[in-house]
Specification:
Structural class: alpha+beta
Number of domains: 2
CATH topology of the largest domain: de novo design (two linked rop proteins)
Bound molecules: zinc ion
CATH class of the largest domain: Mainly Alpha
Mean pLDDT: 92
Number of helices: 8
Distance between the termini: 45 Å
Strand content: 15-25%
Helix content: 25-40%
Length: about 250
């Protein structure tokens, strides 16, 4: 059966016979893996379309569980992301995270559009990439239904001044409830960052253009959000994590 979809190339691996397996977050089908003869090092236009970060339109042939990419045409390459190592690592972090958040063969068009926005904003941004990455992460967690509780204490349900963030409880906890726990997966939580996270949730990524968080605040909060996602979706360390928040 022939079919087609827009998609973002997440990663690729070599397989037997000079072929490659391309992992694609498609708009229509969610995450899929598809075999191809197309080689990213080739010179053709189609080779460019299967490089990581590229947003392309793919024509597939499906037979049972097997999918082959028959042809691919680049919509946007986000080429400039590769020109700055910091920007590149932040974008890699976003795609690695997306790879973990999106399920195989389950469409997630909202998260797909958000990921295209992220790549577009990251390409255009000149500094403070973690501010944008954090905005993407918190919006992506909301899309897949694991946004942490940010309004009330997850233990007592009261709207007290939050002081800590509990990974296991999935959100903020108050000082009183902290005293009653000896849990190790608890981070001190800066009250101001909650308002930043709420701002992210109610605005599109493009409105973060002029927002710049202090590096240590952005990195600490990113780490907390990613630890939260890892715990609740059960996945391990991202490869780019050590570079960004390590
Ligand atoms: Zn409490």
């Amino acid at each position: 059966m022939f079919t087609e979809s827009e998609g973002i190339v997440l990663r690729q691996t070599k397989i037997a016979g000079g072929r490659r397996m391309i992992y694609i977050f498609t708009k229509k089908f969610g995450k899929i893996s598809a075999g191809t003869q197309l080689n990213e090092r080739g010179r053709g236009k189609q080779a460019l379309a299967v490089r990581p970060f590229t947003y392309s339109n793919f024509q597939f042939f499906k037979k049972g569980d097997y999918i082959n990419i028959n042809s691919a045409e680049t919509i946007r390459s986000f080429y400039h992301i590769g020109e700055d190592v910091d920007k590149y690592m932040n974008a890699s972090y976003a795609l690695e995270l997306t790879d973990k958040l999106v399920a195989d063969d389950e469409p997630a068009p909202g998260l797909f559009n958000l990921t295209v926005d992220l790549l577009s904003e990251m390409e255009a941004r000149e500094k403070k990439f973690e501010t944008l990455l954090l905005g993407y992460e918190v919006k992506a967690l909301k899309q897949v239904g694991i946004l942490p509780e940010l309004e009330i204490c997850t233990r007592c349900g009261e709207e007290k001044q939050p002081a800590f963030f509990s990974i296991k409880d999935g959100g903020i906890i108050c000082g009183d409830c902290l005293k009653a726990t000896n849990d190790s997966l608890i981070y001190p939580f800066d009250f101001g960052i909650i308002n930043v996270l709420k701002f992210y949730l109610s605005h599109p990524l493009e409105s973060l253009k002029n927002l710049a968080l202090e590096d240590d605040v952005a990195k600490r909060t990113l780490k907390m959000m990613t630890e939260h996602a890892k715990y609740h979706l059960d996945f391990g360390e991202l490869k780019s994590e050590a570079f960004i928040t390590g």
